[in-house]
User: What shape does this take?
Amino acid sequence: MSSTEIDIKYVAHLARLHLTPDEEKKFGAQLGNILGYIEKLKGLEVANVEPTAHATPMPNVMRPDEVHPSLPHDDAMRNAPAKANGLFIVPKIIE
Amino acid sequence: MLNQLTISELTAKLASREISAHELMQSCLDQIARVDGNIHAFISHNASDALAQADAADKELAKDDRTTRCLLGIPVAVKDVIAVKNQPLNCGSKILGEFVSPYDATVVEKLKSAGAIVFGRLNMDEFAMGSSTENSAFGVTRNPWGTTRIPGGSSGGSAAAVAADEAIASLGSDTGGSIRQPAALCGCVGLKPTYGRVSRYGLVAFASSLDQIGPLTKNVRDAAIMLGVIGGHDSCDSTSVPQPVPNYTATLIGDIKGLKLGLPKEYMIGGLDAEVKSAVDTAVKQLQSLGAEIVEISLPHTDYAVATYYIIATAEASANLARFDGIRYGARVDGADPIELYCKTRGAGFGAEVKRRIILGTYVLSSGYYDAYYLRAQKVRTLIRNDFLKAFEKVDAIVTPTSPTAAFKIGEKSDDPLQMYLSDIFTISCNLAGICGISIPCGFTKKPKLPIGLQLLGKPFGEETLFKIAHAYEQSTDWHSQKPAL
Assistant: This one.
């Protein structure tokens, strides 16, 4: 099975995912293997085929722009890892 | 024992007041206490809350013995990926920390309005990614038929709980076979409804264009009852389809004369276990003797389904799982800036399989690779869907094995993701095509004795036909009534 190189550090950063050096090595090899398997799709002629994003053919679903009851603020904040005065606490973004 | 009975048997006994919902719930709790230390189908369950719901059901039964609530007093357990208000929700992951659901999923709301006792958090592969329930942060679930074996996945807890009579029925979710494959491997019935039949509101998303919630039950009639409850359009999920929900149990007449069943020639692959093949061949003969006509069909793009699936599913997952960033809910690992916080939180919170799939999904969507992988996979998805639509011009349903082998040993494939992915070969196309599928018991391997599943695939919104065929077959066999020694 052919192996495809993948720049795992770059992709992990795109995914905002910290990997240990061991994980980088292990996943790199396993993903190379999986991408090698996926190569088989390149053997199909698909130039004139429409892509399917969604199996059930449906138009866009719209609703009137009206206010409805929604999740109360406290319920929405209930699982926050850090909060104060009804707000999420996050690290400083702007100096 | 009450916990071994089916929904239809129990609702009759509850309505006639022969038994109470409290007794029934207690019998499930007793079974959990007796066997779940070994099986580990449940991540957690709240016994006093379950009994309080049972007592409320008993009060209502006492008021009105002709209730129209078709699940009144029936204990139904739920996969840990579906929100139940005020219950924990972890998706088998560490990253959600101490998360408690602030609302009910639509399916849970519907179960509750039908009178069900909704209890327990069932174990699963983390974020429903896996085929063995080995990828859970809460430990592995064991197959009730052989505790050195996997129960299948990702809804392994949902299948094991029903097979071990710890719950009367359960809910699972199916993105590439995650209801049907564990149902097959644990010897119960599992249905993946047509995409859009059941609302996904309150189901934590893995791959939004493939995910569907469905029931796992002890027989086909119970699956039909459950789908009648959970199916239907929901304004909270714009991908649910506004099509009326038929009376599914009305189709269980036992007569399948003249129905045409397709046997796809591409499904007789090399990796198909001899005992599984023989059980499926025997089942096909049985269906024939019940009056069905068997037709060979071709699904020419079958060989491309696994590759297509692992591009589309991981791409969608990489986007869906971006929300687990340690800001609004769940566990957090602090960092000097937001990016470091995200990276550390996600690095510490996700397990190996989820990380692999996020990386793969991010890669196939990344600049320069999108056309070669993601767009191409979406085009092949069209070819796979067209294969099925063409086949359904000739046949009413398609018959296949559910899984190429019976339950494998714990640890056997956990270090080889590609081999694990290939074990989903028979179930994956159904999700890509958006059609419906059911797995029913069709036999056992000899030594050790492990369940084998038969899969029936139906047209979009063809669940009635699937139930009719599955029920007729079930009536003529006793596979579904055999119990594991626990």
